[in-house]
Amino acid sequence: MRPTSRINALRGFCREFGIVIAQGSRLGVEQIGRVLADPRSAVPTLIRGTMTLLIEEIRLLEVRIAQLERELTALARHSHACTTLLSIPGVGLLTATAMVAATSGEVSHFRDARHFASWFGLTPTEHSSGGTRHLGRISKRGDRYLRMLLTHGARSVLRAASVAVRAGKTVDGLRQWALAVQHRANHNKAACALANKLARICYATLRDGEPYGQPHRLTKKIERTVFALPT
What we know:
- It is built from nine helices and two strands, in the order ααααααββααα.
- It has helices at about 5-15, 25-35, 45-75, 80-85, 95-105, 115-120, 145-165, 175-185, 185-210, and strands at about 125, 135-140.
């Protein structure tokens, strides 16, 4: 059972006895703890001990999760690949460290950005015939965990972009593109398309070693031609 599953179980127990718990994990656990501490609450004494054990397990898991986050933060701080990935919208600590762990921060063995995105199963399946091209759903092949993290990151970017637009704020080109896809299709398709785009951006940042949003520095070799002057 994950912490969320335990919290949902506690909410269900309280709902059985007419007790409505507020939204949010932290606020919900605190409210359930107060309900169990109140001897006048509608929760039967028979299950109070079990619910109390679940709350203790949740708090213990939260302590362990916080410790792991501190350790991952320390690791990411000393990894150039992680700090580069963290500059991308929708890419957080878990996504950056998981991607570096899966690729060792090296993407030279991938042919291109599309090949990298297909490694996560984020590219659409193609059903083409002759001159007709039809793209279906994403393949969902490859690393399921990273695909889930990128999709959740894309959803958070879409949600924040929608809130920013409603507030009259300007958004960058990536968010404008994602909102346009959402307007043409729907939220789920836009989230998958944005997750694909984020995977390609991750490939570019790891390949170039530069944070997202910085202009790419092109190094061109200038060949000087020496002309023989007439004598």
